[in-house]
Every structure is written in structure tokens, then in C-alpha cells.
Inverse folding.
């Protein structure tokens, strides 16, 4: 589960720019705003952006961000949020520098009455907020074959005023277990619940270290050039056949876990500038991008890499969010996310993308961003995990946290890969016990054979 600031999850954005004269002339963003979708109300004023998480079961106060410039706010984890008015003073958009897309805001007259009073300190209130948040925001009940109303009818009678926090945590865990959604999670202190699609394994530091050691010994032992970047999250090696190998184990943590997005981006740029030199992009016959163990992170970092793999602008995907609490088929207008060629050396030749069930979240959105990449791109391995949305991190009245997805990432034909994952074009086993026992890396070998060599 991606644990990020609730305000960030409720939002998305482009990096903040220096204010212009036109921006200075825009109406003030101070006031109260309702977000299109996301069950969120924001108040802006006095140098503070305050989030409120709303459902028909009540309103819970969320995170607070401090103003750091005209229209910009910084969260407690260093993410920069930007709010600007559009069209008139009653409409605005909000974005976060670590996420793609924007959130639409509509000015409202005052804070909803529910947000001016605290919910009762009662496990039944926690249950109602938890159930209602999924009811109003989760898009995938039908696809998962889960009757959420039957779930309420089964578990609500077991919750009473004396239900302990541990008992309530266990109830919530049983409620969401049938979803098998890696972007659904619950946290109460040291107690954490999340799970992955059956037959897959969640990325971990231990799994990543095991796989990296195996790849270095088996696939890269004779590589003439191998180097780690971005705190070990990125590895590059030249292969003897004239191909290149780029392993990415996450889209974050490049400059340390607590570093702001700007530092992560700068570290990624340093790595890409070292790897994709003018000489190397001219002589590479093919590039293997290994995402088989990738725990996700920032979608914008994936887009930044895609910008180094094309000379032609194209659309990575379109993003939309569920925005009708009563109708799970209604969404915000899909927003296209462009890939614009970077003003730096770019590799545009054949690419083989290695994926598996431990390719998760931003690892999957990056995979999807390469589907329509101009030039030859082939996917090798196993389907990805099947979770794409930013995670809505929500607070319960008793302080427990939970997260859920509410967005879809669409291909140009309107397809999503939620639940099933992005499928490979060439199917090969990925890090099975048999592969390890026999010293095999079938997906890597298939990619080497598929790409041109010198």
C-alpha cells in the first residue's frame, strides 16, 4: 500500500511555476472548494490548505498543508501542491508535483455543516464511514464480483459501542479481503492489512535484493559496463550483443525515502543523463527495461523516463475518477496525460519491457505509458499486478487509516487493466521456484533473442 499524505492522494498535479502577471490577475483561491470526485472539500486561507473527507456518513478532518508561495502549498512530506483558478473565480484546478493530471474544484458558499462537528467516538460511526467511503468511491465492485451491500449486512451487526480497535480492524480486514486489491489497505499503529492478487507476490526489500543478486550473477556477470543509480533503485548495464539493460525497482526513493519529489526527479535526471549519453543512444541495438520487481511510486517519474524514449509526442493514457456517490459508472472527464520528448538525448530504438505480478502501481502506469510508444516495443513475462489508481488515504474518527483506489487509467480505446494487469505479448515464467532452482531467467533470455543485436 502506498502510504502518502491524504491531501496528496486526493489531488494531482504539475510542478509549480513562477507566478506570471496573468496568474497574479486571477481571482483569489481563498475560500471553500468541493473537488469533482474524491469525496473531498478543501478550505484555503490564512496560509493553510485544509482537507475534509466527506461521505453521507459524515465528515472527517484530513491533512493540513502550509502555503509556500502564491497558489502553492507544501504537505508534511514535502510534496508541492498548486491551486489556480480557471474560467472564473468559482472554478479551479489542483495538482501535485508527484502525480499526473489535475483535480477540478468548484467554489461553494461555506464548509458543509457535517464538517463543523465531530463524529461520535463510537466503533459504529467508524464502520459507517469506512463502508460508505467504499460505497461512494470504489469503482470495481462489479468487476470483482463483490456485493458490498451484502458485506455491510453481514458485518454491521457485529459492531457495537464496546467493540475494541483490534476487533474493528479485524472486521474491516475481512470485509475487504475478497477484493484482492493491492491498493486497498488498513493501518492502525503496527497493525497493517493489505494483500495482492492471488498467485503474485508483493515487492519487498528482501525480494528485490534476492532477484537483483540473481540477475547480476546470471545475466550481467559478463556485462562490460554495470552501474547502480538512485540509491540502488536503478541499474544499467551494457550487454555484449550491443543491447542495453535498465532495471527499475521503483519510481521513488531515489534520493532517500523522505526526500521531496524535486530531489527524486533531480536524481532520476542525473541517472538518465549518465545512461542515455549521445554515444550510447546511437549505438544501442535494443533496450531491455526490467520492471519485474517494481513497487511503484510516482507516475510522473515514469512519464519522465518515457520522455527519453521517443522523438514524437503521444498520449500515455487518460485518467478519470469516479465522481457520483450513487452511480459507479459515472466519472470525471478523462484527462489525457501526454509524453513530450525530452530536451536531452533520447533512445528511440526497439524496447523490450519485462513485467510480472510484482510489477505494481506506478510500475504498471509506466508499462501502460509505453503501449503506444512510437517505435517497436514488446512486453515479455507475466501480467502486472492490476492496480493503477492513486490511493485515497482516509482517516476514521478514531484515528485509524485506510486506503482505496477511485481512478481508472484508460488506453486510447477506453480499456483499463485494473484487476487483470497489463498482459505480456510474449509469455514467460518470472522468478518461479523452478527458474531459481535451475538458474534460468526465461523472460530475460527471450528479450535478448527478440531484440536486434550487433
Amino acid at each position: 500500500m502506498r502510504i502518502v499524505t491524504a491531501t496528496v492522494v486526493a489531488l494531482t498535479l504539475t510542478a509549480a511555476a513562477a507566478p506570471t502577471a496573468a496568474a497574479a490577475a486571477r481571482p483569489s483561491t481563498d475560500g471553500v472548494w468541493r473537488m469533482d470526485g474524491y469525496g473531498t472539500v478543501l478550505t484555503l486561507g490564512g496560509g493553510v490548505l485544509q482537507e475534509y473527507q466527506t461521505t453521507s456518513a459524515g465528515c472527517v478532518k484530513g491533512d493540513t498543508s502550509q502555503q509556500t508561495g502564491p497558489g502553492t502549498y507544501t504537505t508534511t512530506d514535502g510534496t508541492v501542491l498548486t491551486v489556480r483558478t480557471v474560467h472564473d473565480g468559482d472554478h479551479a484546478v489542483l495538482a501535485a508535483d508527484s502525480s499526473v493530471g489535475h483535480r477540478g474544484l468548484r467554489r461553494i458558499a461555506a464548509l458543509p455543516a457535517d464538517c463543523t462537528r465531530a463524529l461520535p467516538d463510537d466503533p459504529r460511526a467508524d464502520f459507517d464511514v469506512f463502508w460508505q467511503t467504499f460505497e461512494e468511491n470504489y469503482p470495481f465492485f462489479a468487476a470483482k464480483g463483490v456485493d458490498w451491500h451484502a458485506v455491510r449486512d453481514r458485518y454491521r451487526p457485529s459492531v457495537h459501542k464496546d467493540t475494541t480497535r483490534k476487533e474493528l480492524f479485524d472486521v474491516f480486514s475481512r470485509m475487504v479481503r475478497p477484493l484482492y486489491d493491492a491498493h486497498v489497505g488498513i493501518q492502525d499503529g503496527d497493525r497493517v492489512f493489505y494483500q495482492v492478487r492471488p498467485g503474485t507476490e508483493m515487492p519487498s526489500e528482501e525480494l528485490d535484493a534476492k532477484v537483483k543478486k540473481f540477475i547480476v550473477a546470471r545475466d550481467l556477470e559478463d556485462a562490460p559496463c554495470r552501474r547502480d543509480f538512485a540509491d540502488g533503485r536503478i541499474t544499467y548495464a551494457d550487454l555484449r550483443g550491443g543491447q542495453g539493460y535498465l532495471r527499475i525497482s521503483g519510481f521513488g526513493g531515489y534520493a532517500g525515502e523522505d526526500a521531496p519529489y524535486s530531489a527524486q526527479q533531480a536524481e532520476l535526471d542525473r541517472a538518465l543523463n549518465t545512461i542515455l549519453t549521445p554515444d550510447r543512444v546511437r549505438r544501442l541495438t535494443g533496450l531491455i527495461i526490467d520492471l519485474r520487481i517494481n513497487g511503484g511510486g510516482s507516475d510522473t517519474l515514469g512519464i519522465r523516463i518515457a520522455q527519453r524514449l521517443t522523438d514524437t509526442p503521444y498520449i500515455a493514457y487518460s485518467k478519470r475518477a469516479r465522481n457520483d456517490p450513487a452511480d459507479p459508472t459515472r466519472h470525471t472527464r478523462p484527462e489525457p496525460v501526454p509524453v513530450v520528448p525530452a530536451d536531452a538525448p533520447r533512445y528511440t530504438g526497439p524496447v523490450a519491457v519485462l513485467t510480472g505480478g510484482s510489477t505494481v502501481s506506478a510500475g504498471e502506469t509506466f508499462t501502460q505509458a509505453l503501449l503506444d510508444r512510437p517505435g517497436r516495443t514488446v512486453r515479455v513475462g507475466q501480467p502486472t499486478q492490476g492496480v493503477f489508481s492513486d490511493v485515497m488515504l482516509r482517516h476514521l474518527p478514531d484515528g485509524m487509516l485506510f486506503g482505496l483506489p477511485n481512478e481508472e487509467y484508460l488506453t486510447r480505446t477506453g480499456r483499463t487493466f485494473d484487476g487483470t494487469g497489463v498482459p505480456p505479448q510474449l509469455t514467460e515464467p518470472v522468478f518461479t521456484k523452478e527458474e531459481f532452482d535451475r538458474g534460468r531467467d526465461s523472460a530475460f533470455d527471450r528479450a535478448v533473442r527478440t531484440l536486434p543485436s550487433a
About this structure: Confidence is low (pLDDT under 50) at residues 1-23.
